[in-house]
Each structure stands twice: as structure tokens, then as C-alpha cells.
Specification:
By secondary structure, the protein is α/β, with parallel strands linked by helices. The radius of gyration is 25 Å and the shape is globular. It binds fructose -6-phosphate.
């Protein structure tokens, strides 16, 4: 949440800042602002989108070879122009951008106010800006030392970048709990900073990921890194593996649609090189390294939030079916606060697309403290979660820019499938025949997804046109398709603002059935191998109450197709692999309904992609 960018170098900063903010807008779009250092500090900021900021800035002085920029997801203070970043110090000489929350800002603010500081905004960030200046003046130290001392006084999470009018050849940045990447530019003394690598990739592929409690100083064209305890560090420069195409719309109307259509490739990439279908072996280093731990496991706990939590539920079904280990799936936000029983014998699987979700990170730290082994399943390479877990597997789905998660979900489920099979193999719970069947079926999934996308796209559009004005919607599924129902409902509500609920199909009669009338669309996942007859009965129960049925069925199905108001066919597959296929039409349905309702599909209201606050 909140995106930050900064430039230091021989060229004008403005273009990078604006382009970078557009790329990071998925992290928040309540307000946007930039500061340019050009002898003076020139600041433009505004409530609303980056495009509005651009309109304000255009035609004005946009000079400045150092600059910082911010796109905000409001936490402290309403989303207006005054609360927009950058914030300035008491004298106005220091400008600062911040992603995170300074938890003890109220205490610091009170003390600073007693010393005569006046604050313009309601934000926690402005307090930090004033604190840095207060320390610099009082202690007579340089900007770097003032930032270091200030960070020792704050409690909370931050990625910050600071410019000072009095130090035109200096830019300071720091992180704790919120992400920060530095790109090493092609020209001498040129640096690009950002919350993630997407703004940087256009300019350089050489980056270093800053760790928690580290401060980066760029002074006179040289970069140095030290901790807030004053320990000097050597930055590890690595090459970025993402391409510029992967972060552009590529002819699609929205990132979400592009990402839905990328799934044949992203699913393939998430399994590529991880198993050998002929020799029935796995090539997942994390499985090899933890083989003895896996053999002796009593229990697995899966922690995640939102869509990743839904993938975790599919993971529970997979792991319990194949490896017969009990699995508990927990919302990270609940798990971290309820003093759960976690022991050294537990394996905790943390799932996160962004790798930055604050609750998931905190839950990991807590489980680690209790001695558990933590396995991460993340998409963003170099993000915080993979760097704090003991082992893990990247999903390799490529950058997901649309705020609603699509390809990340199917990649997570694919990796969880491999993990379930791998654990089963290590524990001797799966026969060679069954493994062979699963591997060969997995190999067909990318092609099946491709066929499905082609065959169901128009149908999803037609159904969307019929139900676009619905005010409620029910999603039902059993077994592996229950988490799919939850995910379908989440997708619809978050991008179209239609109220939707997912339920295990059999639970319908314990309450939700009361909602069913001729106005209520009920989306039922009724595939052949997943309790088909039982779901058929549930469909009859809905029909008897005049509900409208939109059924997801297996190709060639006749029974459901006959009684449903609408049906969408998906290719036949193993019951355990159905979630990957059944999710696709639900994503498309939500997408088209949202588009037809004129909703901002890629940036739904109130949401942000990387939830770095709890
Ligand atoms: C829904 C969605 C969110 C995220 C959740 C967790 O479409 O994107 O529910 O799944 O915020 O985010 P990650 O996976 O980054 O931890």
C-alpha cells in the first residue's frame, strides 16, 4: 500500500517519477505527489490519480535532477491534497515520502508541538519529517545521521525517501517492513528507487533489495548502505528477471483481462522444471532440503489473506488427500493475534502474491518465534516474505498489476498441487501409478486453460450482460470447488461492487436459501468428478425456489445443462485439478460484469494490491 519512487542522477527526475507512479498506482490511488530538488524544493501534489497530478504539474517548472514521488492509500488522515505526500519539515527544507505506518507518531507529535512545531496534515508521515529536522538542528549532525537517529525513535513500518534543500547532493532512503528497491542506473551516479522493480525495469536491470532496518545514502553520486545501528553493509546487486512487456497492457483494455489470458503461460511457468513426468521425480530443492522434516511432520498450517487464503483452502484439500497430513488453514490476521498452538514439529506454509502482506509477515514472524519451519509460496521475487521464510517456491506467474488477483491464484494452486504430491511422495503415500496420472494431467492443464479461455469468453460476456444489474449473487461448490466458489464471490464483489457470497453447496439450506428468489443468480460449480449428484440436488433446490442457475459444468454434461438457466463448459480433469479450470470462467464473468457496470476494474475503490498495513 502506497507506492514510492525516487530518482538521483544526471538527468531530470520528472519523467521517471510520473511513469513510475503510474506503474505503482495499483498500490494506492487516493492521492499522488512529487518533490523536485532544483535549488529549491518544488512540490506538486493532489487528491486523486497520477493523471490528475500530471495535469497540475504540466506547464510548470519540472526541472530537478533529484526527485521523489508517492501514490497514496490513505491510513492516517482522509485522502485529500493536504494529506498527500511528499510532506515537509517545519522549515520546509526537508521533503519526505513514506509507505507504512509510524505507530508512535501521536506521542512524537505531542512533544514536537510543545517545542513549537506546527503541522499541516493529519498524517503520521509529517511527524517523521519534522522529527528528522529537529534532530539535525539540535544534534548538529548531517542528514544521514539525523535520519538514523530519528528512525531509532520510531515504532512502526516504513519505506521512506528524503530530500533536503540544504543537501542537494544527498538522497536518503530506509526501510523497515515496507519494500524498497534501488536500481543502479546506466549513467555514472544514477539511481532509481521504488517500492517494487516495475518502475525501474525500463531503465536498468541491476537492482539491490534493501533489507529491514537498513538505510541507503546516495551522496555525491555514490551509494552506501548501513543499518540503523550504524553497521556498514555491502549491497548485493542482482539482475532483474522481469521484462517490460510483462508490466504493460499489451493491447488489452485492462491488466486484469491480460492477466486472465496469461494463465496458460503463468500456470506452465509455475510448474516448469519442477517435476519429471517420465522418471516420476521432483526437482524442487526446497522439498529435498526439508525431506527429513517432511517425513516427521504431524501437521501443516497454511496462513494467508484474501485470494491467497482461498488458494490455501485448495491446498488443504490437496495435501490432506495426497499426503494424509492434517492441515489447518488460517487467516494470517487472526492467527497472529490469537496465541495459537504452534510447535517445532509444525510446517507453516505462507502464501502471498505480493510477498508484502503485513498480517502474513507478522504471522510468519510469530510462528518462527515458536520454532516452526516456514515455507513461502510467493510471486514477487525478492519481496519480504521469501526473504524471511526458511524455504519456499516462487509461483513465477509474472507481475500481477490488476488489483484483483487472477493468475497469481491459479499459479498458487498449481504450486500447492506440486507440494502436495511432493510431500506425499516423500512420505510414501502415493503410488507411482497415481503420480504418473497426476503428472501427465498436470502437463495438459496449460493447454486446457488456453482452450477454455477461447471457448468460454463470449459466453461469459453474454451471461454478464444478463446479470450485470444484480444486487446479490450466490456461489456454490463442494469439495475442491468450495474454495473456488469463495474466490468467485470475492472476485465479483471486489471489482463490480455486487454483494456476493460463496458457500459449500450443502450449507445453502442452513440459511442462504432464504435469499433465493427469481432475482437471485446462483453460480454453481457442478463438475462431473466433484460430488456431481449431490450438487445436482442442490441445483434442484435452487430451481424449486425460482433462483437463476449459472452452472460451470464438465464438457459434454447434459443433466445440469438441461436444468440450468445458463451453463459454461470446462474441460474434464482430475477432481483435484478442477479449481484451476473452474476459476477461469468465474474470473471472466466478474470482469465483464464490472466493465459493463463502468467500474474501474484494475483499481477498484478502496482497495490496494499490496496490503502492507495490518
Ligand atoms: C483479491 C486480492 C486480495 C489479496 C490479499 C492478499 O483479489 O487480491 O484478497 O489476495 O490482499 O494479498 P497477497 O497475496 O499479496 O498476500
Amino acid at each position: 500500500m502506497c507506492g514510492i519512487v525516487a530518482y538521483y542522477g544526471p538527468n531530470n527526475a520528472y519523467e521517471y517519477l510520473i511513469k513510475g507512479l503510474r506503474r505503482l498506482e495499483y498500490r494506492g490511488y487516493d492521492s499522488a505527489g512529487i518533490a523536485l530538488l532544483n535549488g529549491d524544493l518544488t512540490i506538486y501534489k493532489n487528491q486523486g490519480k497520477v493523471s490528475e497530478l500530471e495535469a497540475i504539474a504540466e506547464g510548470n517548472n519540472l526541472e530537478g535532477k533529484r526527485g521523489i514521488g508517492h501514490t497514496r492509500w490513505a491510513t492516517h488522515g482522509e485522502p485529500n491534497t493536504v494529506n498527500a505526500h511528499p510532506h515537509q519539515s517545519q522549515s520546509g527544507n526537508i521533503a519526505l515520502i513514506h509507505n507504512g505506518i509510524i505507530e508512535n507518531y501521536a506521542t512524537i507529535k505531542k512533544v514536537l508541538m510543545q517545542r513549537g512545531h506546527e503541522f499541516k496534515s493529519e498524517t503520521d508521515t509529517e511527524v517523521l519529517t519534522h522529527l528528522i529536522e529537529e534532530i539535525q538542528v539540535k544534534e548538529q549532525v548531517d542528514l544521514l545521521e539525523a535520519v538514523r537517529l530519528a528512525l531509532n525513535e520510531v515504532v512502526g513500518a516504513y519505506a521512506i525517501v528524503i530530500l533536503s534543500k540544504n543537501d542537494p547532493n544527498t538522497l536518503i532512503a530506509a526501510r523497515k517492513g515496507s519494500p524498497l528497491v534501488v536500481g543502479i542506473g546506466k549513467e555514472s551516479g544514477e539511481f532509481y528507487l521504488a517500492s517494487d522493480a516495475t518502475p525501474i525495469i525500463e531503465y536498468t536491470n541491476q537492482v539491490t533489495y534493501i533489507d529491514d532496518n537498513e538505510i541507503v545514502a546516495i551522496q555525491d553520486g555514490e551509494m552506501s548502505v548501513k543499518t540503523i545501528d550504524n553497521v556498514v553493509k555491502s549491497p548485493f546487486i542482482q539482475e532483474l528477471q522481469i521484462s517490460i512487456d510483462s508490466i504493460e497492457k499489451g493491447g488489452y483494455d485492462h491488466f486484469m483481462l491480460k492477466e486472465i489470458f496469461e494463465q496458460p503461460k503463468s500456470i506452465y511457468d509455475s510448474m516448469r522444471g519442477r517435476f519429471d513426468a517420465e522418471n516420476l521425480t521432483f526437482s524442487m530443492r526446497s522439498l529435498e532440503e526439508y525431506a527429513s522434516k517432511i517425513k516427521n511432520l504431524d501437521r501443516i498450517i497454511i496462513i494467508a489473506c484474501g485470494t491467497s487464503w482461498h488458494a490455501g483452502l485448495v491446498g488443504e484439500y490437496l495435501i490432506e488427500e495426497f499426503s494424509r497430513i492434517p492441515v489447518e488453514v488460517e487467516y494470517a490476521s487472526e492467527f497472529r493475534y490469537r496465541n495459537p498452538i504452534v510447535t517445532e514439529d509444525d510446517l507453516v506454509i505462507a502464501i502471498s502474491q505480493s510477498g508484502e502482506t503485513a498480517d502474513t509477515l507478522a504471522a510468519i514472524e510469530m510462528a518462527k518465534d515458536k520454532g516452526a519451519t516456514i515455507y513461502g509460496i510467493c510471486n514477487v521475487v525478492g519481496s519480504s516474505i521469501p526473504r524471511t521464510t526458511h524455504a519456499g517456491a516462487y509461483t513465477h506467474a509474472g507481475p500481477e498489476i490488476g488489483v484483483a488477483s487472477t493468475k497469481a491464484f491459479t499459479a498458487q494452486v498449481t504450486v500447492l498441487t506440486l507440494l502436495a504430491l511432493g510431500i506425499a511422495e516423500i512420505r510414501g503415500k502415493i503410488t507411482q501409478d497415481r503420480l504418473r496420472t497426476m503428472f501427465s494431467e498436470l502437463n495438459t492443464i496449460p493447454q486446457k486453460v488456453d482452450n477454455l479461455l477461447q471457448s468460454c469468453n463470449e459466453k461469459c460476456k453474454e451471461i454478464a450482460a444478463i446479470y450485470k444489474n444484480a444486487s446479490n449473487c450466490l456461489y456454490l461448490g463442494r469439495g475442491y470447488n468450495f474454495p473456488v466458489a469463495l474466490e468467485g464471490a470475492l472476485k465479483l464483489k471486489e471489482i463490480s461492487y455486487i454483494h456476493a457470497e460463496g458457500y459449500p453447496a450443502a450449507e445453502m439450506k442452513h440459511g442462504p436459501i432464504a435469499l433465493i428468489d427469481e432475482e437471485m443468480p446462483v453460480i454453481v460449480i457442478a463438475t462431473k468428478r466433484n460430488y456431481y449428484e449431490k450438487v445436482l440436488s442442490n441445483i434442484q433446490e435452487v430451481k424449486a425456489r425460482k433462483g437463476k442457475i449459472i452452472a460451470i459444468v464438465t464438457e459434454g454434461d447434459e443433466k445440469v445443462a438441461e436444468i440450468a438457466d445458463h451453463y459454461i463448459e470446462i474441460p474434464d480433469t482430475e477432481d483435484s485439478l478442477t479449481p484451476i479450470l473452474a476459476t477461469i470462467p468465474l474470473q471472466l464473468l466478474s470482469y465483464y460484469i464490472a466493465v459493463m457496470r463502468d467500474c474501474n476494474v484494475d483499481q477498484p475503490r478502496n482497495l490496494a494490491k499490496s496490503v502492507t498495513v495490518e
